[in-house]
Design brief:
Keywords: FAD, Flavoprotein, Oxidoreductase. The strands form 3 sheets. Strands 12-9-11-10-14-15-13 form a 7-stranded antiparallel beta sheet, with helices on both faces. The chain contains 15 helices and 15 strands. Strand 14 and strand 15 form a beta hairpin. The chain folds into 3 domains: 218 residues, Uridine Diphospho-n-acetylenolpyruvylglucosamine Reductase, domain 3 (2-Layer Sandwich); 120 residues, 2-Layer Sandwich (Alpha-Beta Plaits); 87 residues, Alpha-Beta Plaits, CATH 3.30.70. It is globular and about 70 Å long. Helix 7 packs across helix 11. The mean pLDDT is 94. It is α+β, with helices and mostly antiparallel strands and 439 residues long.
Amino acid sequence: MGRFHGSSTTVLKPKTTQQVSRILQWCNYRKIPVVPQGGNTGLVGGSVPVKDEIVISLSNMNKVREFDPVSGVLVADAGCILQALTDYVAPHNHIMPVDLGAKGSCQIGGNVSTNAGGLRLLRYGSLHGNVLGLEVVLPDGTILDQLTTLRKDNTGYDIKQLFIGAEGTLGIVTGVSILTPPAPQASNNVILALPSFQNVLPLYQTVKAQLSEILSAFEFIDRTAYNLAVKHGQGRALSDEDVQGAECFVLVETSGGRREHDEQKLTTLLESLLEADKPLINTGVMSQNPAQFSSLWALREGVTEAISKEGKAYKYDISVPLSSFKDVVDGTREHLRSKGLLNDEAVKHVIGYGHVGDGNLHLNVVAKDYSPEIQAALEPYIYEVVSSYRGSISAEHGIGYQKTHALHYSKDKVSIDLMRKIKNVIDPNGIMNPGKVLE
C-alpha cells in the first residue's frame, strides 16, 4: 500500500535452520535487532525494518521435508510459498487448510507467524488448530524442535501456540508441520443479491441449516464494493437487471464429496429462498462450470485490487458481531461526512466486505491520497467503535507496526502485561522484530 518504508543495509538469506541459529546467536550476543521476512505480503508493516534492523529472509528455505498421504500431514520449510504447497499436495488429493489472495507469494512461515485467516476458515478453522508442530529458532540461537506430526499430544503447555500469531517477535519459525484436509470432490458456488443487509443474518442461518456439512464459505460484499470490482474488470456476476435494488451480495461456496448431491442441495436452497413468502434474496446465480466458479470468486477476491486502482486505502481488518457490520460501515461514512471529508478530493468511498462465517469485516476507506486529516478522523474513532462491541482491532492481519498503539482497544492491561513478560523471558535483549505488536 506504500504506507510503510523500511530502512536496512543488510539482508541475510539462510538456507538451513542451523544457519538461522548461528545468525541469531551472533546478533543476540551483539544486541543487533533483526526482522524476519517471508513473502512480504502483510498489510500492517510487520515485516518492514523500520529501525535499520538486519532483514532475515526465509525465501531460500523452500523445501518440502515430508508428506504422509494417509494422515495428510505435511512438513515443510517456512519459506515454502503457499501456492507451491497447494500444488504439491494436490496430486495426493489434499488441499492446504488456508487460502489467501496472496497465495502466489506469501510463505507458510509468515502465514503461521501472522495466524493468517483467509477464505477457508469457516470450513477448516484457524492455523491454531491445523498446525501440529513447529521448528523455531529462539533469539539466542537455540533451536526449539516441536515439529511433531501427532494430532493428539496432551503433555503440558502447548508451546508452539506462542509462536502462531507472534509476528516474529519471539523467534523465527523455520519449519511447519500442518494438517492438510482431503480435497473436496466437488465445489460449487452461488452469488445472491439481497435487498437489505438486515437479511444477511437470517440468510446465513438458513444457508447453514440447509447446506450444513458442505458449506465452506459465506462471503459478504456491500454494494459499493461490488460496483468497484465490476468497474475495474474483476468480473460481472449478475446482469444489470439482477443487481437493481440490491443493497449487498453474498457469495456461498460448497465443498463436498459428490457433485450431484451438492448441486441438488444448492438448487433446493435457491428454490426455497426465491419461493418464500418473504424472500430474503432478490435473485441468485449458481456457477455452471469451472470457469464460472472461478469468475465468481474472482469478483470477491478482486475487491482488494479494485480498491487499489480507485485510490489510497485505509484498511481496517476487524472482528465485530455480525449484526453490526452495516452499522460500523454506515457509522464510519457518516462520521467522515460530519468532518467534511466525504468528497472526491478526500474520501471517495467507505466500503465493507468480509467473512460472515467468522465475524471478520474488512472496512476500507478509499481516499484520493493519504493525509493526516483523514488519519486523525479515522483513529481512534474506528478503534473506539470496535472496543464498544468488545471486538478485535485485527481479525487476521496482525498488529505489526501499524497497530501497536491501539492494542489496548482489544486487550486489557493484564493481558498486555503478560505478553510483555513472555516477550522479556524469551527475548530479553529485545532483538526480535522490535517495535512490532508491543510498543
